[in-house]
Amino acid sequence: MSYTQAPHLTKEEIESLLKEVKIARFCSLNDDGSIHAVPVWFKYENGQIIMGTLDASRKARNVKHNSRVTVLVDVEAWPQKAVLIYGEAKLDYKDVFSKLVSVCEKYMPKEEAKSWVEGLLRLSKWVIMIIKPERMASFDYTKDKAFQTVAQG
Hints:
Blueprint (H helix, E strand, L loop, with lengths): L10 H10 L2 E7 L5 E7 L1 E3 L2 E7 L3 H8 L2 E8 L5 E12 L3 H9 L5 H14 L2 E15 L4 H7 L2
Helix pairs in contact: 3-4
């Protein structure tokens, strides 16, 4: 017997995971060919990943040169499950305030999010990044009883 991959998440399980998990890992390509990977706040809405970032951030600069990105959304506790999103990122400079507040509402109450975003926008220029998935891969070790038995010894 050989082991290839844990079972996949269903479409409904993917939707649920993308709405529940608080931190994603955003990956983009640096000019030198290395990968830039950073944890980010995000919101999953209408089939897209939405996040805010500084316009001068490495993430935004990389997307301006190469819009191909990968986003990992996972549960860190064992048994792990995750969704890998491969897609195209676009920078959106319209209505940054309300879109960023919408993302931040996943992490704090609306009034607190508004106040926090107002402070961020006073300090620097922000942009909204929208990632449209082209392909998703997933795994769910909670469904893999054989692997759990081996992993637990």
